Every structure is written in C-alpha cells, then in structure tokens.
Amino acid sequence: MKLHIFRRAIFYFSGMVLVSCATENAQYGKNVRNTPVERIKSGNIAHRFYLIGDAGNADQQSAQSILEQFKTHLDSAGSNSTVLFLGDNIYPKGLPKEEGKDRKLAIEKLDDQISLVKNFKGKTIFIPGNHDWYSKGIIGLKEQQDYITEKLDDQSAFLPKNSCAIDRKKISKNITLLTIDTEWFLADWDKNLGINEKCDIKTREDFFSEFESELNKNQNKTVIVALHHPLIDHGSHGGYYSLKKQIFPLEGKFPLPILATGINLARATGGITHQDLSNANYRKLTSRLKTLLANRDNVIVVSGHDHNLQYIEEGKIRQIISGAGSKNEPATTVGPNDFSYGKNGYAVLNISESGDASVSFFGRENNQEKLLFQKQVLENSEYNPVIFPSEFPAETTSSVYPKSFTRKSHLYEFLWGKNYRENYSTPVKVPTLQIDTLFGGAKPGRSGGGHQTNSLRLNTPKGEYVIRALKKSGVRFLQSVAFKNQYIEEDFAEGFADQFLLDFYTSSHPFTPLAIGDLSEAVGLKHTDPTLVYVPKQNGLEKFNQNFGDELYYLEARPAETEENPIEVLGTEEVIKLLGKDEKYKIDEKNYIRARLFDMLIGDWDRHHDQWKWEQKPEGKLIYLSPIPKDCDQAFVRYDGLLTKFILDFPGLRHMQSFDEKIKNIKWFNMESYPLDLAFTTASTEEDWLREAAFIQNHLNSEIIASAFEKLPKEVQSSDIDRIKKNLEIRKNDLQKYASEYYKIVQKTVLLTGTNKKDKFAITRLPQDETEVKIYRQKKSGEELVFEKKYSKKQTKEIWMYGLGDDDQFEVNGNQSNPIKIRLLGGLNNDVYTINKGNNVHIYDYKSKKNTFNTKNGKITLSDNYDLNEYQYKKPKFNVFSTNLNLGYNPDDGVIVGLNTSWTKKGFNQNPFSSKHTLKTNYFTLSNGYEIRYEGIFPRIVGNWFYQIDAGYTDSHYIRNYFGNGNLTINNHDTFEEKYYRVRAREFYAKPSINWRKNASLFSAKLIYEGLKIEKTENRRIAIPNIVDENVFSTNYFAGIDVGFHFENVNKKVNPSLGMKFDSKFTYRQNLNNGDKKLPTFETGLGFTHYLTKNEKLTFSTYAKSKWLLSDDYEFYQMATLGGDDDLRGFRFDRFYGKSSFYQTSDIRWSIGNFRNAFVPLKIGIFGGFDYGRVWLPNEFTKKWHTSAGAGIWLNAIDMVGIQASYFRSSDKGRFVVGFGMNF
User: Fold this and answer.
1) Antiparallel, parallel or unpaired: β 1186-1197 and 1136-1138
2) What is the mean pLDDT of residues 653-666?
3) Cis preceding-peptide flag for 385 (omega within 30 of 0)
4) What 3-state DSSP class applies to 618?
5) Lowest mean pLDDT segment, chosen from 142-146, 499-503, 979-983, 1119-1123
6) Alpha carbons 468 and 555: distance in angstroms, whole number
7) For residues 307 and 321, what is the distance between their CA atoms, to the nearest angstrom?
8) Confidence of residue 905 (pLDDT cuts 50, 70, 90)
9) What is the average pLDDT across 209-236?
10) With a threshold of 0.90, does the pTM exceed it?
11) Residue 1167 to residue 1205: CA distance in whole angstroms
12) Closest Cα partner for 144 from 126, 118, 165?
C-alpha cells in the first residue's frame, strides 16, 4: 500500500539526504567563497604555530608527500615557532610496552613524525589523541611521553604531562598555550588504574574550574587551546558524511547502500561512540567548554581528530581543525566564514606582536603545494581612548542603584521583602578614586571577581589592589550556576531574571563590609580593609572604561607575599594537595575554627572552598596553614518576604538564612562549609570549639561593635544598623551553644587522611563504645605519631580513613559488639590490612592491584571504581528531607490534592546519592479516592547497577479509555459524552528491579506483583454486559517479570535537532487467579531526529513502534493500544485495542526565530505531523490503517523548558493538545 512506500521513503531517502553533504574538495562559506585567500593585516610575527594532527599513520605512502612538504616549512622556520602534533600520534593503538608485538611498527610511526622536526629551530609539542589511549590507557600514554621527551630531550615535548587533564605553557609574555587531553575526560576512569595519581585535578568538575581560571588569568594575552577533539566539527565525527559513505559503510569495499545509510544515521544521531560529537559525554565536554569560551575574544581552539582541514566560526569561538596529517575524510561548511578540505594537509597559525592572528591551510593539488585558505582569525582592535577629564572632585555623592530601581509596590515588598533596598538607592558621599595617582600611580591589570561581583586588579608601587563593584551581576550568577552548559549572558542581560536577581541582592547590606574589618581585628582574624570609593570613568582605566567606572567600589589590598610574610599565599585546593604531600603541613585549626564561628556570628553562609586564602606559618618542623577569609558579602543578610522565605526552605537553599536574633538551623546554615569543616578540623575537640567561641565573646564587646559600624556612611546610619548590632549581641551571647551544636554535627561523620607516603592507621576499640585512632608516619628511623584522637559512638557514627598514596598499613584491634562504623580506603599501591576484630569494619580498595589482607574479618569491597576509592573532600553532604504539594485535575477524579515527601541519604557510596525514598500521596475530590505510591532507589550496587523498588496502592480512579476490541471500533462522540468510554479501577503493585545505566542507555529487569480490579461504572461502555470478561470486575492478581532496554540520545533537552531513541521490552504475566493464563509480550520502537538544513532550523523527526501479545490469555487492559499523544495524535487515548499493533509518527519542525521579552528569551517555531497505525485481532480481516495529520506551534525557553500546542485531525474529528516538550 501507499503507506508502506511512504514509510520506506521516510527511513531511506530522507536518511541519505540528511547526512550526505560532505566532500573531499575544498568548500567555502558564502562570505569567503570569492576570496578564499584573504589579505592579512601586516605586522611582525611574534610566534608561528605549525598545526598537524592524526599523523600517526605516517608510514603510509599516501601521507609521505604532504609530510615532506610540511617538513620543508619546518626546516625554514625560526626559533619563534612551535609545531603542534594534535593527537593520534600512533595508529591504531598507541605505543605498546617494550615487549609488545606491535611496538616496532608503532615506534616507526612515531619516529616518522619526530624526523620532521630534525632541523626545526622552534619548540615541538605532541598532545595525545584517543588512539594514543588505546594501548592500555595511561600506561601507553606514559610510554609515549617517555619516548618523545627522551628523543627530543625536552620534558615539555609531550603535554599535558603525566596523563593529566590540562597543562599551561608560556610561549611568550603575550601568548599562552593551554593543552588539554580530551580523551582524559571521555575515558572510563574505572578502566585506567592510577589515573590522576600525579595530577592536581582529580575530578572533571575541577578541570572545568581550572580551565576557567586559566582563561581569566590570561585574559590579556592571546590564548591557544590545543585539544585533540574539536569543540565544533563538520566532518564525519560531527555527523556529516559523503555520498560515498552512504554506499560503502565503515571503509568497506562492498556496496551496501541501505545498510550504510542506516549506520550513518544511527552514528550521527545516536552518539554510539564517544568519539563523535553527538555522544552524550562528548557533548558534556564541548558544551561546557564552549560556554566558557563564548565571551572570549582572545582565544583560538586548535584540534585534530577529524581527518581533514576545517576553519569554523561560531559566535566568538574560532575553531581550527588540522587532522589530515596521514589520513583524509570529507567535510563540509556550515557558517558563512567556514572552510573545509577533505584531503591531506596542515595549517599554519601566525600571531603578530600586536595580537592579530591569521591562519593558512595548505594541501597538495597536482603534486604541488597549494595555499587553500587564509583568514584573519583574531583582530586586535586598537584601544582608542576616549579623553576623560584629568581631574575630579575629591569627593562624589552617588548610590548603588537609582531610586527608580528600588521603588517597589507594597505587594511586591510583602512577597519579596523590603530587604535593605532603601540603602542601595541612598546617595552617600565618598572619596573619588583617581587610578593614575593612586599610591604613586596605578595601572589596571585584569578583570575578575566571583560569579556575582565585577572586580578589577590594580598594580601599584605599593603592591596589588583590587576594586570591587557594589553593584553585582545577576546574569553572571545565572551563567555560572544555572546555565553552565550554554551561554546566556547576552540573552538575559537587563531582562527580568537579571533585574530580579539584582533586586534579590539587596538582601545583603551594601556597606556592612566596612565594619567587618574592625570586628575581625578584635577577635584576631586576618581580614581585608576595604575603602568605599567612587570610581569615575577616567583615562587611568584605559580599555576597562567599557565595563568599569561611574559607580561605587570597594578598594582593598590583595593578600600577597610581603617582607613580613614572604611565603606564597595559597588557595584551598593547593592546601589539600600539601596536606597529602607531607605530614609537616597542618591546618591552623584554632584560627580556622575561630573564623568559622565568626561566620556564624555575622550570618555569612557563603563560605565554600573558594572563599578562603591560606598563609604558611612555620613552627619548628611543622608548617601551619592559616586561613585568610575572603569577602563576606553574605554577612547580615535579610530575607523577609513571604515568597522568599518559602523558596529558601527548599533543600538546596536552606543555608541561605536571614540574620536574625537566632540561627534558624545551625546544620543547614553551614551546608556550604561542611565538607571543608570535616577536612580541616580533624584534631579539634568540643572544648576547642567552645574555647574559640568564648574568645570571640570576650574580645568583641559593645563598644567595638558600635565603633565598627560607625565606619559606614552616615547617610545609612538607620534602624537597619541598630537591628544588626542588636542581633549581633544576642548571637554573640549564644555562640558557645552554636559551637557545641555544630561540633556534634561535624563529629557524626569523620574524615581522616594519611599522606602520599607510608602511613599506618592503628584503630583500637575501647570500652564504653569508644574508638581510638592513631596515625603514624613510617620512616626508616621508625614510626612517628602524627595524629591521635578518641571517638565516642554517642557522637560519631562513621569514620572514613583514606591512606592516599604509597604502601599503607591498617590495624584494627579490640572487641565491641556494635562499635563505630569504620571505612578503610587504602588507595593505590600495596596496602596491608590486619583486622583482628571486624565488627563494623568496611575495607575498600582497588581490585586490579595487589593488597595484603591478614584477616578474614570485616567486609571487603574490591573494585576499580574511581569515585569510590579516591579521596574527595567535597564528598560528604547532608541528608535531605523535603516535602512539596502536588495539585492536578482530570474530569473523572476531580481536583487531585497530594503531598510528595522524599528522604535522600548522602552517605559514603553516592551516585549521586546513597539512597532516595519518595512517598507520594494523593486525594481525589470527586470520588473520595486516594493513592499512595513509594519509590526507593539504591544506586551503585556494583559499577553502574542500581536497585529500585516501586510500590503503590490506588483507590478508585481513572486509568484508561475503552472503545472495544479491534481495529474497526467506533467512537460515538455525537451520542455519548467523553466519560462514557472512561474506565475506573483500583490497583496495587510491588515492583523490585535491578537496573543498569550508562550514558544514554538503561537496562531494567523487574519482578512484578500486582492486582487490578475494574470498576463497573453504570452508564458507561465498560458496564455493557459481556463486552469484557466479567472476572475483570473482581481483583485479578498477577506475578511476572519485565525486562527492557531504553536508549535515548538527544543534543538538546527540548526540541532537539539531533537524536535517536530505541526501546525494547519483554514482559511475562502469570494470572494468579487462574494458573492457566500466561501472557508474554514483546514491544520495540525506533526513532530518529535529524536536521534538514545546515543551520538546524528545519528538522525531521520520526518514531515507529510495534507490540505483540504472544498468547491468547489476556485481559482487555493488557492489550496493545493506540491513540493519544504518543502515537495517533488525532485519536483519544486507548482508542484501539488489539493483540498486536504498529504505528509511526513523524514531524517536520521549523524554528522561526528568537525573540527577547521582559522575562526570558524564547525560540518560536511551527511543526506539521503525520501519524499512521493500526491494531490486529485474530479473525478480524481488514486492511484499514488509521491516520491523523495536524500542525502546531512550539515555544522553547533557553533550550530547557518547552511548550507546544497542536491540533490533529482524524476520522474521529480531532484533538487539541497543549503539553510540555515534544513526545519524540
């Protein structure tokens, strides 16, 4: 029939068209088509980069000519040049060990590349690619690094070093090279024992933070980011294939046109391999990096991976791909300034002394070198200063916000609070800061600040200072916290969200930082001394006038090395590293505890790891790391709106507590600082905490408090300040109580670590439920005690002990029936466990390395799970209990009112939690019915396996429609109301399951026990005699299994332009009322989404699914059904019942464009769809296929929330539907 032809056309013809647009020939975007070799700005070359990648097949004759040409360039290059080999240096499987059978050939391939730089006067750097990992992961990388660095006699010839994530190399004073091992991010760490052992970066999230930090540090330089996997790609790894590839798949020699298209379509949409951009993990990497680069105009990204030459511009991102050193693959262009070439070649990147950058791509045509494309990549727009006045008044009167911004209605203030809003629009008279005369003349350095504050560093003869704007950035906060994977700053600037956050920031007093210094000084804490100034736009700000000036700032000195303190000031991550390096490093716990209690006193809840600096204080053989608190922006905050208080009661925001007379909840107040407190207060006792609380109480009197707040401008000396001082006195009086309460919280779970040297942990169980822990450093001279403490089970529930590096010993002695739970984690190397009594002792170590167990006691868990075995100080988190209201409505049940309650445990084994229990209760007003549903999730049983329990009971409620069995049933919508076909039921179920999840895949195996009783509702179709088996009106009990696999990969959560979905499920049900009734079923579905145009505005999406009942022993509610939002959209839900079914539903979607509004930027589009399908019954002979067609409109907010409205017409009239997102 014609529908079958239509279906085949959709799957085959469109699939080929969608992915067939790449060629080997040079292609040019419309803007560069007529001038592929652009005239480049003249200027002296500061540095030249020669870029070649994927040269690891260099023994092939086809690659020799291009490499010889490349060598000619290198031989004539000067010393101010660098050649970058961009990964995949050895095909196909990296560098084996000495005894490896393929070692000789691998060395030959590497030597072929090294020989290219024999006469090269510049620097040579190799970075790793995915193929370089294929010889036992980091083992093969080390082999390659050792060989290259020895051969070139340069320890920086292979970067990043030691299989780490990122390395920085200074090329010149104005050029920085960042090398990234992208396969490090994509690899399975559980299969790479020892990964990150010699690296500062231990997590993928830390890598992103480091990358952002490096971009900030080098914002005034030209930055080259070299990484093997490109961020943007228009070759095969990006989902673009040649027509030839549609016929010859996987480099085969036999034509398989239909199969080839299917393979390419699955690869482009499914992301089946993590080497393709469509892969979920690869997408996590690129989307995050692209977001961090989106507003940078000084960065060039260079990559290999795809075997071609490409230049791509996307916003401010400049991507160069030079991966055609020894292989070639077709590619295409998408943007107007893009270029692609699918044959062998290389690129040359020139950086001029002025900061301009240009790229040239070379290939060979007709056995001659050819300049294929040349483009200006970066153009350093010279700073054309606006001439500002050279003199300013000594003082200026100004406010943070204008009056118009802080003027709010009574209703707004009732809902969102008054906060300190008036203080933000109160004009204050302050000194005027003139940059070029500050401390003998200051020069602006680089901009920075946290994720809320705009700041600028100033270099002066007296040291480094910083100015911090009092007006914060709402959109920067959104970008860094809520939208890490997409750039939104331009779309949200000055929009509702930005303006709302700016108003929300009025919850903190703008001028109280002026009082913090004196308060800190009184209790002996390090602090900054900010000065409130007005900074006008001025010549001294130079190019920073664009983003700074004409507002109020705090001027303060940055912590730095001085004559009094010549030792480097450290960040928290550096401190963690030092603590693991040597036992001589100790936290100055006394001052840290005092600082933390001071935080509680002033109500500063924002004390995460980045809010501290640390100075080193040598004392004898030890070096104490003493805290320097950074800005206290959240001190004395005021949240007094009805909605504000409601929102801040959500679990993730509970730490944001108002500065009242009492601390509302001491545990949640310290949520941000809790991991650091566990890591940095291991030796302290409750007496230590009480002593520091008493110290603050004794040294901070009313006179000091009053004097400190007198530093605030006189214009804001109001009742707000009186309230702060009053609450400060009250909280000070209660400080010992808070110290005692919080100490008990910190002691519930204890974290102890050794060093990366040989340590011994001696654990002794003592009477009265006490456990003593002693830690020794094992030296040649003997054991040296470095830690000792006793713990009581009344306070401590668990102790986690990490041996870290080297060979460690763990001994457990003593006998208690139910002691404190001990978790011992040896880490890498050979650790020795001697457990004489194993009650409540859990041992964790790597399965693939040697350990010594002198015991059969204790519970031993051996696995290569990286997250489980490695020390991560941020791991401990609070358990979370939460409740929220549930509201709904349908015509049969009426208004649905319920409560959702969840308990999330975040213990030792998290992924991302240890267990989660959810209880949902609902009440149906129309039927007086109710339902109770429970879900329990227990992650990481082994590897990616997790356990889940679903159970529930539902009183009489609407569950489905019933029009009768078969493909030819009639909907008498003109005669009967909609509810005539509705079916109500009571049901209960219990479904324990074991599941496996990895990336886009989910496998599930469930045991089923369930009961269902259909309600025989009068005046409905279900009540017609003999229309269904009468036994369904009694409770039927079933037992069985469900085994299913689900795969779904999309490039965007809402309205994707690329995606693949596959479902397959087998079920078996045994009717316990009638043992002869056994019902196996099988269902499977497959769907694709792919763009039709290169700009991805027009997309095609289709999904097809079938279901079969494999016996005749079924009840009507177990049959295959069609109708509703997911299949035949023009028919009501469950419109057709059969023993088997098939449907296909397809859409063409067009994104019309973007538009900004006062609330959130939106994308708008339209779509048209066509569905067809049918059911089959034995003895029903019909060729009828049901169809529905329709159209709709969709709205998409920032690719995270989507809504669509559509109308689909069918033989049953039609349906109008409004819903969230797209169904396929």
Assistant:
1) unpaired
2) 94
3) no
4) strand
5) 499-503
6) 7
7) 9
8) very high
9) 96
10) yes
11) 10
12) 126
The torsion angle over the Cα atoms of residues 909, 911, 913 and 919, rounded to 10 degrees, is -130
Cβ–Cβ < 8 Å for 554, 454: no
Least confident residue range of 5-14, 731-740, 861-870, 1201-1210: 5-14
Q: What length is written for the chain?
A: 1224
Residue for token pair 């193929």: 131
**1020 close to 977: Cβ distance less than 8 angstroms:** no
Element (H, E) at 616: strand 612-619
The pLDDT, as a whole number, for residue 830 is: 94
pLDDT, tens digit (0-9, with 9 covering 90-100), for 427-470: 999 999 999 999 999 999 998 866 788 999 999 998 899 999 99
* Tens-place pLDDT, residues 514-563: 999 999 999 999 998 999 999 999 999 998 998 899 999 999 998 765 54
Question: Is the confidence at residue 140, as pLDDT, over 70?
Answer: yes
| pLDDT range class, residue 23, cuts 50, 70, 90 | very high
Over the range 801-833, which residues count as b (16 or more CB within 10 Å of their CB) and which as e?
bbbbbbbbbbbbebebeebbbbbbbbbbbebbb
* DSSP E strands, 1051-1160: 1058-1071, 1078-1091, 1098-1109, 1120-1122, 1136-1138, 1140-1155
Q: What's the token pair of residue 781?
A: 């001279």
Instruction: Find the radius of gyration of the CA atoms of the chain.
Output: 34
Query: Regarding predicted confidence, which is higher, 972 or 183?
Result: 183
Range list of β-strands (E), 945-1071:
945-961, 982-998, 1001-1015, 1036-1050, 1058-1071
**Where does CATH 2.40.160.50 sit in the chain?**
941-1220
What residue spans in the chain does CATH classification 3.60.21.10 cover? 15-378
Residue 927: per-residue pLDDT: 76
Q: Is the dihedral of CA 1116, 1217, 1141, 1021 positive or negative?
A: positive
Q: What is the pLDDT of residue 746?
A: 97
Structure tokens at 838: 């194993």
Q: What CATH topology corresponds to 941-1220?
A: Porin (2.40.160)
The beta strands (E) that lie in 366-485 are given as 368-378, 395-398, 428-431, 443-448, 455-460, 463-469
DSSP string of 37-105, one letter each residue: BPPPPP--EEEEEEEE---TTTTSHHHHHHHHHHHHHHHT--SSEEEEE-S--STTT----TT-TTHHH
Q: What is the pLDDT of residue 490?
A: 67
In single-letter form, the type of residue at position 533 comes to: V
Q: What is the DSSP string of 1087-1103?
A: EEEEESSTTS-EEEEEE
Q: How far apart are CA 360 and CA 349, in angstroms?
A: 7
Q: Where are the alpha helices (DSSP H) in 570-681?
A: 572-581, 589-602, 642-647, 666-669, 674-680
Burial 91-115 (b: 16+ CB within 10 A, else e): bebbbbeeebeeeeebbebbebbbe
Closest CA to 1088 of 22, 268, 284: 268
Fold held by 15-378? Purple Acid Phosphatase; chain A, domain 2 (3.60.21)
Q: Which residue has the higher pLDDT, 10 or 761?
A: 761
Q: Mean pLDDT across the chain, nearest whole number?
A: 91
pLDDT band with cut points at 50, 70 and 90 for residue 12: very low
Is cis: bond before 627, omega within 30 of 0? Answer: no
The encoded tokens of residue 542 equal: 């130079």
Cα–Cα dist 96/110, whole Å: 12
Three-class SS state of 531: strand
1022: helix, strand or coil:
helix
pLDDT for 566 equals 52
Helices (H), 158-242: 182-186, 204-217
Matching residue, tokens 């936290």: 587
Q: Residue 282: which residues within 8 A CB-CB, separation 6 or more?
A: 186, 229, 271, 274, 275, 276
Distance separating alpha carbons of residues 839 and 859, to the nearest angstrom: 9
